Amino acid sequence: GHGRVAVELDSSAGVAVMKMENLPVNSLSLDFLTEFLISLEKLENDRGCRGVILTSGAPKIFSAGLDIMEMYGKSAEHYAEFWKAVQEMWLRLYQSNMVTIAAINGSSPAGGCLMAMSCDYRIMAENPKYSIGLNETQLGIVAPFWFKDTLVNTIGNRATERSLELGLLYSPPEAHKIGLVDQLVPEEKIQSTAAAVMSQWLAIPDHARQITKSMMRKPTVDRLLAHRESDIQNFVSFITKDSIQKSLQMYMEMLKQRRG
Ligand code: CO8
């Protein structure tokens, strides 16, 4: 790889740790998504790997979500290619045959939250500075239907409605309360907890667990597969609008000013 995703496979346990290292904030750029997909595919095809723990090597951030620079000031062709990679990331992760556990050791807005929700189980560090949620409306953009579907599958319809319309980012206790994350732990316990939870999940015969996972998730996946091209076209026509480009520009400026 190019060092944006560090993979460590423990062959005796059959468990890999995938550590995102696209510094500073693990934003999901096209390059990062491409490398992530290659790493995941390798593990998926490795019979010695039955489970993956997804975590971050960036301090305080799990993932800042889609890379805003990929959605701003680029060509329609670029947006289409980028969006296809975002779809592919979700399709692969959401349907993985492996047990996937998100060890959320930092903030996880928007696409970062989507990645975490695509795993089978979420453990979050109980640091009050961290937040997680689909905050798209706060950027003046609309979460695609399959982001929405994934949130509905995680927290239910009513909680999704409120969460999505307001673009809410939840503190760890709030996220736990609504079921967006399954478990909170002190930061230093996150990797050991992930390993312990993994062994519980791996005690279930793979075949039965995989078929059950597919039964739960396939209808959601099929909805995107049936509309994949139009979803790309929607994204491209939405993101190329002047008003949306303007919103994203203002949001990037706000992020930069906030630092001072
Ligand atoms: N993309 C690109 N660059 C980013 C992003 C991002 N998502 N997030 C942060 N950065 C940059 C910052 O601009 C900053 O750059 P610089 O050093 O040049 O000033 C650098 O990363 C560090 O960021 P901060 O100084 O803000 O670091 P903090 O530790 O203070 O905060 C956070 C980290 C919490 C991650 C904060 O940066 C943040 O809130 N970022 C924005 C997160 C966000 O809102 N992401 C949403 C992206 S949209 C998405 O994922 C789904 C879109 C759905 C598609 C819509 C269809 C139309």
Mean pLDDT: 97
Question: What is the CATH class?
Answer: Alpha Beta
Give the number of DSSP strands: 8
Helical content, roughly? 40-55%
Biggest sheet descriptor: 6 strands, mixed
Approximately how much beta-strand content do the residues carry? Answer: 5-15%
Note the quaternary state here: single chain
Query: Separation of termini?
Result: 35 Å
Ligands (ions, cofactors included): octanoyl-coenzyme A
Please give the count of helices: 10
- Kindly report the CATH topology: 2-enoyl-CoA Hydratase, Chain A, domain 1
How would you explain this protein's 3D organization?
The protein contains ten helices and eight strands. The strands form two sheets. A six-stranded mixed sheet has the order 1-2-3-4-6-8, with helices on both faces. It has a single domain (5-202), classed as 2-enoyl-CoA Hydratase, Chain A, domain 1, CATH 3.90.226. Helix 4 runs antiparallel to helix 8 (206-226). The chain is of the alpha/beta class. The protein binds octanoyl-coenzyme A. Octanoyl-coenzyme A (CO8) is lined by residues 24-25, 27, 60-61, 64-69, 107, 109-111, 135-136, 139, 141-144, 235, 238-239, 255-256, 259.
In short:
The protein is of the alpha/beta class and 260 residues long. It is 50% helix and 14% strand. The site of octanoyl-coenzyme A has 28 residues, from α9 and α10.
Record keyword descriptors for this entry.
260 residues, alpha/beta, 2-enoyl-CoA Hydratase, Chain A, domain 1, 6-stranded mixed sheet, two-stranded parallel sheet, binds octanoyl-coenzyme A
